Amino acid sequence: MDKLDEIFSMQAALDGFIAKSRNLENKYSKSEWLQKKSLALIDEVTELLNEINYKWWKNEKPINDGAVKEELCDILHFFVSMCLDAGMSADELHRIYLEKNKENIARQEGKSQKTGYKLNV
Predict the structure, then answer these.
(1) Per the domain annotation, does 110 fall within a domain?
(2) What predicted TM-score, i.e. pTM, was given to this entire model?
(3) Which of 20, 90, 101, 112 lies in disulfide reach of 106, CB 3.0 to 4.6 Å?
(4) Alpha-carbon Rg of the chain, whole angstroms?
């Protein structure tokens, strides 16, 4: 099994287990789930920020690489869960990512139809 497929499969199983064990099946609409998981993802990003000294007005502390990696995995959990809620498969995410990455490179090279990205060199 592909690693991304495995992540999607494991997340689907976890989401199903949580929904069943907490009586959340059919409790929220697709929109409500996406809202809730967006907020959870933002919270995980905030937890990551707290690990990486973003507060320039405070003394720096050593970065705990393990905690940073754990927060990144928490972010991935909610991101993949949102992909599943949106009906997106691992293959579709991969395909759209490749398309968007190509467009992002074109933007940086000034070769995109989108305006506002041309480098001022």
Answers:
(1) no
(2) 0.90
(3) 112
(4) 18
Residue 51 inside a domain? The answer is: yes
Identify which of 73, 69, 77, 38 has the alpha carbon closest to the alpha carbon of residue 51: 69
> 24: domain range?
3-88
Give the position of tokens 């467009």: 103
DSSP state of 44: H
Give how far Cα 95 sits from Cα of 57, 75, 88, 90, Å.
42, 21, 11, 9
Cβ neighbours of residue 58 under 8 Å, at least 6 residues apart? none
**CB-based contact 52:63 (threshold 8 Å):** yes
CB 93 within 8 A of CB 5: no
Quick check: is 117 in a domain? no
pLDDT, one tens digit per residue, over 20-67 is 999 999 999 999 999 999 999 999 999 999 999 989 999 999 999 999
> In this structure, how many other beta carbons lie within 10 angstroms of the beta carbon of residue 67?
14
Quick one: tokens of 111? 């070769």
- 17: domain CATH number is 1.10.4010.10
